[in-house]
Specification:
With 198 residues, this protein is of the alpha+beta class. Helices cover 47% and strands 18% of the residues. The chain is built from six helices and five strands. The strands form two sheets. The chain has a three-stranded mixed β-sheet with strand order 3-4-5. It has a two-stranded antiparallel ribbon with strand order 1-2. The chain crosses the membrane at residues 66-87.
């Protein structure tokens, strides 16, 4: 839903800016002298000296009592909408529920956070893993796991990834009744102080 709204808003904004830019560009060119035709009479910009908002347009409503409250309210609404849009773009869609096929024709719902917690605990139990964070994304019928593992200095990444795939993620797939659980794993090293040896 957010992706669709984002694309529609970006498309409308792009079309609006394209139309405004084209109108200003065509109005600013001396078409009559160059190519022998002119823009229609209703065109808002008629020559190189025209501006988008002239003195008359800027000062027309300034003396009215309702003008400034209306302008401030519209700008406040625009600011709230833009902040919401920015928040929606920066926020990753966390999967709150997973649909599990219960083999009897109905679909059960599994809490996404509960599955994340189980995967985290199992991953943290692996030798060499200091900490784990899991986030489920995607669709309820096709979740995708994003994992971040912090490794101890003695950890063997290849072995950890193998045990993660064969053990932890296999258990998660089986418990949720999933045929597959695509997973992206990010490995980081735990920061530690250097030990002094005498």
């Amino acid at each position: 839903m957010i992706k669709t709204v984002n694309r529609v808003l970006l498309g409308l904004l792009g079309l609006g800016l394209f139309a405004l830019g084209g109108a200003v560009l065509l109005g600013g060119l001396d078409l009559q002298r160059r190519w022998g035709f002119d823009v229609p009479g209703w065109w808002p910009f008629r020559g190189p000296a025209d501006v988008v908002l002239g003195d008359e347009g800027r000062l027309r409503w300034r003396a009215e009592g309702w003008w400034w409250p209306t302008v401030i309210a519209m700008l406040a609404v625009l600011l709230v909408l833009l902040l919401w849009w920015l928040w929606a773009l920066l926020r990753k869609n966390r999967l709150h529920q997973i649909l599990v096929d219960s083999q009897d024709g109905t679909a059960a719902r599994l809490d996404g956070r509960a599955l994340e917690d189980v995967i985290e605990k199992e991953a943290q139990a692996l030798d060499g893993v200091a900490r784990a964070r899991v986030r489920l994304e995607g669709r309820r019928t096709a979740p995708v796991a994003r994992m971040r593992l912090w490794l101890e200095p003695h950890a063997e990444p290849e072995r950890i990834l193998d045990r993660l795939d064969q053990g932890t993620l296999a258990h998660a797939r089986d418990s949720a009744g999933l045929d597959r659980l695509p997973t992206e794993v990010s490995l980081r090293e735990v920061r530690h102080r250097a030990h002094r040896v005498d």
